Amino acid sequence: MKYIVVIVIILVSLCLAVNVLMYLANRSKYYKLINLLQEKFALPAPYSLHVHTGFFGAVTMIYFFLRLKKKKKILFLRKDDPAYAFFDDSNSELANWMPAFYYIFIFGFICGVLLFMLAVFLEAKDRFFP
After folding, report:
1. Which of 12, 16, 55, 79 is buried deepest, with most CB atoms within 10 A?
2. Are 105 and 59 in contact (CB under 8 A)?
3. What is the pLDDT of residues 120-129, one digit of tens each?
4. Gap between the Cα atoms of 98 and 101, Å rounded
């Protein structure tokens, strides 16, 4: 059991480190994409907040851009909004790194949740079944 916990902690740490490095390597593309979008369209309220939080809001903004690129429904954005045409022109190459960033984050988050659930389970086991 101890080795499983150590492996999950290492996975969470690796995912975080890779996400930070990917963000730093692609920060200029990220902000260029945001600036191009804000020049033409208004961001919905929650996303306009996440734009200003740097790395900590990047996952939410990347989720927004991935949904926009696939033309899927986005929270607080009408389906007929002209912003869905944002990736019709040459902005698509700026977002090529985003799916990897998003899925690495999701994998790390799931590992973190599993680690939390394991800790709660072990604590409950020790407390209620000594």
Report:
1. 12
2. yes
3. 998 999 999 8
4. 5
pLDDT digit string, tens, across residues 45-104: 889 999 999 999 999 999 999 999 999 999 888 888 898 989 887 788 899 999 999 999
Give CA–CA dist 65/116, Å, rounded. Answer: 29
Residue reference for tokens 């929270």 = 75
C-alpha span between 78 and 58 (Å, rounded)? 22
Angle at 55 between CA 116 and CA 74, to 5 degrees: 85
Dihedral in degrees, nearest 10, Cα atoms 46, 38, 96, 81: 70
Bridge partners for 95 per DSSP: none
Render pLDDT for 29-46 as a digit per residue (tens, 0 to 9): 999 999 999 999 988 888
Q: Where are the domains of the chain?
A: 2-128
pTM of the complete model: 0.88
Q: What is the distance between the alpha carbons of residues 105 and 125, in angstroms, rounded to a whole number?
A: 30
The Cα 7–Cα 111 span in angstroms is 10
CA terminus-to-terminus distance, the chain: 18
